[in-house]
Amino acid sequence: MSLLRHPALHLLLALLMAAAVLVKPVLFKKTELPQGDAPRYIITGLNLADHGVISDEHRPDPTPTLVAGGPLIALEIAAIALLDQESGKTFRCAVSPRPPEQPPCPLNLTGMKIAHWLELSVFAAGGWILGWLVFRSLPMAWLGFGLIVICRELWTDSGQALTEPLAYTILGFFLPAWLNAWQRPADASSTPLWWGLSGLSLGLLILIKPSAMAILPLGILLLALSVILGKRPLRGAAWAAALFGLGCLVVLSPWLLRNLIVLGVPALSHPSYLATTLSHRIAYNAMSLQEWLVGWIYYLPDFGDNLAARLFAPAMYERLDWGDSSYYVYGRDQLYPAALKAAPEHTAAYLVRDYVLPDAFKHAAVTLLLAWRGFFVGRLWGLVALVLLAPGLRLVTPEQRRWLLLILLPGLLLLFAQAALSVSITRYNNALVAPLAMIAAAAIGGLCIRAYAAIRR
After folding, report:
1. What is the pLDDT of residues 86-103, one digit of tens each?
2. How many Å apart are CA 452 and CA 457, to the nearest integer?
3. Share of the chain residues as helix, strand and coil, in percent rounded to the nearest 5
4. pLDDT in tens, 105-134
5. How far apart are CA 81 and CA 73, in angstroms?
6. Which residues contact 39 (CB under 8 A, 6 or more apart)?
7. Do the beta carbons of residue 215 and residue 410 sit within 8 Å?
8. Cα 335 to Cα 326: distance, rounded to the nearest angstrom
9. Residue 266: DSSP 8-state
10. Between residues 456 and 73, which one has the greater pLDDT?
């Protein structure tokens, strides 16, 4: 293989090209004051930087607590605040009460933007590796890479102190490691290494997004299925499952032990976080059949809300949005306080027992609709990816189809899990971006090859 065609050289070029393409949408993105979920992540990061403790308490002497977002986002924000004083000033101002007569907070988050730019560039380069592993073709790997870097989901929230850029970075390691582990023969000397690396990277992802824990049983289930279908020997699959789980446990153990020793609870995040998101989600179960049907139009990206407004009366779609009369606000302002009052110690269990299980069919139906909303990563990009999904899986070899499905399954599992447990927005589903880009690349490449063959006839 000549040097110019060596995958390592192309990987380096992909990293540099991703960095160049993402300069404008990330580094030059309009700076806004942290809002939404960002302030609570900032508080945990500043507590770590200033007091050396991971805590969500906003007071002069914080004590260790369970936190949303986990230790990695706290570590990242702490590092940014310490290395870039201007970002640190903006962080501190954003989470401090300010009387109206005081001047507005300074808006300088250059350090955070640089961190996010580097993280997203690494993810895109990992996407190139993924394309190479699936297709073993330089043009197809570049096509998949190109589709990743034009997906606006990457940079939509890059101006906020959120977990998504860091999660993208970990996905840039996990997905290639996961696929590499599946591609290697069970008896190959390097196979255990890749299963271990898959587990390690999954553990890091779980520390950022606890919902990613669902991927661990998925991997074990798929390994068991491969044994049943005669694709892997039982011994090899058992070793793979053990190393996958062990790698994950190695990463999670320090955080779980910290929480057990310091707080008496071996948990990944505060249980109230699940109760909060679940109450927001359960509120949508109150929608009518008409609203459910209209929702499939309303949640189409970019144009669905306007189309629904032209076709239906406001009463049929306005509660599907985020306004004061929406189901989201009902869950946040009414259902959650009521559930907290009814069962202050076991709020999430109460919500499941009294709201989900008695109407499981309705919950499942609404979960499908909210998964539809969450699927459209990159908005119209996600809609195009959905259109290309079937041809992309058809216009490939059986082996390539198997690889594409293996990298898609984790993202689909998280899509439906988050639609069942939360309000399901696209930024929660960043695990779909790279797999959908590869499937779209397969469709575009396959259609181009067929069109060229037809022209040559």
Report:
1. 999 999 999 988 777 788
2. 9
3. 75, 0, 25
4. 889 999 999 999 999 999 999 999 999 999
5. 12
6. 94, 95
7. yes
8. 13
9. -
10. 73
AA letter at 139: P
Predicted confidence (pLDDT) at residue 22 exceeds the cutoff of 80: yes
The Cα–Cα gap between 280 and 276 comes to: 6
Per-residue pLDDT reduced to its tens digit, 199-217: 999 999 999 999 999 999 9
Place of tokens 């970002």: 87
Q: Are 446 and 392 in contact (CB under 8 A)?
A: yes
- 182 burial (CB, 10 Å; 0-12 / 13-18 / 19+) is buried
Closest-CA residue to 132 (of 11, 2, 3, 1): 11
Integer Cα distance of 42 and 60 in angstroms:
15
Where in the chain are the domains?
163-263, 271-456
CA separation for the pair 347, 336 (Å, rounded): 9
Query: Tokens standing for 287?
Result: 């929608």
Neighbours of 262 (CB within 10 A): 14
Which contacts (CB < 8 Å, 24+ apart) does range 348-356 have?
A: 348/271, 348/274, 348/275, 348/278, 351/275, 351/278, 351/279, 351/282, 352/278, 355/282, 355/285, 356/282
Residue 220 structure tokens? 């074990």
